[in-house]
Amino acid sequence: MTLSSAQQPGLFIAFEGGDGAGKSTQAALLTQAMSDAGRTVLRTREPGGTPVGEKLRSLVLEHGQGEIDAKTEALIFAAARAAHATQVIAPAVARGEIVISDRYADSSIAYQGAGRGLGTEAIVKLNDWATSGLWPDLTVLLDVSPAEGRERRTAGDAAEDRMESEPDDFHATIRAAFLELAQANPQRYLVLPADGAVSELAQVIRDRINALLGTA
């Protein structure tokens, strides 16, 4: 007998990593694989995922919005995430769906906590409150060097957004913060080299998800 989505366990997966790591590519491949396996999948992104979140996304990522200080930036991301977690992610998981998000709270811990110097503990507390304690079942970290990330982001005529255009030393701090988070939470993280073959990375990710679902 095939279980309905409501009878199957929901799962929340976040893709993290520096800009240009290939998160969107792997999120799309996982979405297709889980859909092909008969699961109901919700693919989303941060900041965004809700109408208010998308408006906040443009505010914080587009150039020309005026000065955005570090605390304001952290609060904008947290506000978008609060709506995302409450309105989208938690209900979908409760329905038995697999939620795949391109970024989540660990990005704020790395970018605003470490990169902007606000302190990782402060950002953890802020986001734990904003999301009512909702954290991913699995965080896939695609590890990329600042130089490689920038090369990928600027391929062709692609323009960098406000966060992407930060200098390489900022992105190096972000990378180190992500790796520290993964080391501190090994049960929640799957760390993979972003320069690996796309298909091979996708297979490793699928294997980990199937193990979590008990379908390996």
How much helical structure, as a percent, in the residues? 40-55%
Order of helices and strands: EHEHHEHHEHHEH
CATH C-level label: Alpha Beta
Count of separate DSSP helical elements: 8
For the biggest β-sheet, the strand order reads 2-3-1-4-5
Give start-end ranges of low-pLDDT stretches: 1-5
Kindly report how far apart the N and C termini lie. Answer: 18 Å
Structural class: alpha/beta
Main sheet characteristics: 5 strands, parallel
CATH domain topology = Rossmann fold
Corresponding CATH architecture: 3-Layer(aba) Sandwich
- The average pLDDT score comes to 91
Into which percentage range does the β-strand content fall? 5-15%
Task: Explain the layout of strands and helices.
Blueprint: E1 11-17, H1 23-36, E2 41-45, H2 51-61, H3 70-94, E3 98-102, H4 105-115, H5 120-130, E4 138-143, H6 146-153, H7 168-184, E5 189-193, H8 198-213
Parallel strand pairs: 1-3, 1-4, 2-3, 4-5
Helix pairs in contact: 1-8, 2-3, 3-4, 3-5, 4-5, 4-7
